[in-house]
Amino acid sequence: MTTPLARHERGSNLPPFVERTVLRRRMMLLVLSIPFFLHYAVAQEPKALSIGGIQAKAGTRTSGFIPVPAGVDSATHIPVTIVRGTRPGPVLALVAGTHGYEYSPILALNRLAKKFDPTQLRGTVIIVHVSNMPSYMRRTVYYNPWDWKNLNRVYPGKPDGTVTERIAHVITKNIIEQCDYLVDLHCGDGNESLRPYSYWMKIDNPSVDEVSKQMTLAFGFDHIVIDDERPRDPGQSVYCSNTAATRGKPAITVESGGLGSMDEEWIDYIENGIWNLLRHFSMIDGKPSYVEHPIWIERSEVLRSAVTGVLLPRVKRGEYVQKGTLLAVINDFFGNQIAEVRAPFAGVLLYILGTPPINAGEPVAFVGQPTNEAR
User: Fold this and answer.
1) Contact (Cβ atoms closer than 8 angstroms) between residue 329 and residue 339
2) Burial level of 40, CB count in 10 A (0-12/13-18/19+)?
3) 79 FRET partner, CA 20 to 30 A, in 6, 198, 337, 339?
4) Residues 79 and 160 in one domain
5) Same domain for 133 and 40?
6) What is the pLDDT along the chain (375 residues), one digit of tens a residue?
7) Cis peptide leading into 90, omega within 30 of 0?
8) Are 228 and 106 in a shared domain?
9) Shared-domain flag, residues 17 and 90
10) Which domain holds residue 25?
11) 182 is a domain residue
């Protein structure tokens, strides 16, 4: 039996019947509060997300293929993983495999899909593993082998176009228009030797431009090409990341790897950049880091070949060159030199072809000139 002294020692000196009444009222208040707390918890949990027929509930990782229906040519599909967090947050799209021979981004996303923990994620990550399956399966550089078009030159695409245009249309509608931020992941194609760098694309929209700038600094590559010549028309956006930007969604393009390499260094750069970007957007716990001394490249130029033949590079990626430096020579198929490619200005060699085949009009090298101006 509970004595008055025992009740006093517990900090209560109420009569037993009063204590029982207070306890019953507290229990009733607790029971009545349960629906409120359940409603609050449900309201805070993100709803299921549907992308191209792939359903992802909160706290799950779901994978599948988004169909690209047949049109004037055959159908194809796009492998996608959706990692849906348990707490509210932004939707970040990661797009790889625009060019099928660019392996570093494809391999990075192949790994990250299993590393992202939806129970620890705020928001959603949409992973486009391979945008251009025909190119990937046929190991082609630049172009889709079915219609010989460059996927990163036909955005926002056409629902009734050729396969490359239909792929762009499906990605625009199902990925770009459903995300808040986008990273277009590239590397040097199967014929390009490239040092890591990123693009900061300015489209005269201050709110989008500034967020995109911070994304490049968070991704971690110190060489950043400033590109303010992308189209402003959403209907003629041309490039994947520019399609997002012209729709008010900050986006960047990053490059790491090349020559069909599976080098761990290039893959790690991409993985580390994505993890830090998730911290930047507070989608996972942790303090983000930023490039402390970015090398802003305001003037840049892609140098193209005037002839078809056998290309022989004379410099290596990442080298600083002077105006007039010989970058490559091109021979005919009988060993006679028929062309030279020289640097148009002093700068850093961001990429150069590393394989002999060259067609007239194709890129040979990309030179960027760092600026001393703070950005």
Assistant:
1) yes
2) exposed
3) 198
4) yes
5) no
6) 343 333 333 344 555 554 555 456 555 544 444 444 444 344 467 899 999 999 999 999 999 999 999 999 999 999 999 999 999 999 999 999 999 999 999 999 999 999 999 999 999 999 999 999 999 999 999 999 999 999 999 999 999 999 999 999 999 999 999 999 999 999 999 999 999 999 999 999 999 999 999 999 999 999 999 999 999 999 999 999 999 999 999 999 999 999 999 999 999 999 999 999 999 999 999 999 999 999 999 999 999 999 999 999 999 999 999 999 999 999 999 999 999 999 999 999 999 999 999 999 999 999 999 997 656
7) no
8) yes
9) no
10) 4-44
11) yes
Q: Which amino acid is it at 23?
A: L
CA angle, 229 then 167 then 269, to 5°: 60
Buried b or exposed e, range 339-374, using 16+ CB within 10 angstroms? bebbbeeebbbbbbbbeeebeeebbbbbbbbbeeee
d(CA 60, CA 83): 6
In this structure, are residues 82 and 56 in contact, taking their beta carbons and an 8 Å threshold? yes
Element (H, E) at 167: helix 163-174
346 phi and psi angles, rounded to 5 deg: -70, 145
The alpha carbon dihedral of 279, 271, 164, 52 has a sign of negative
Of 185, 301, 302, the closest CA to residue 252 belongs to 185
pTM: 0.88
The verdict on residue 294 lying in a domain is no
According to DSSP H, which parts of 314-362 are helical? none
Is 292 among the domain residues? Answer: no
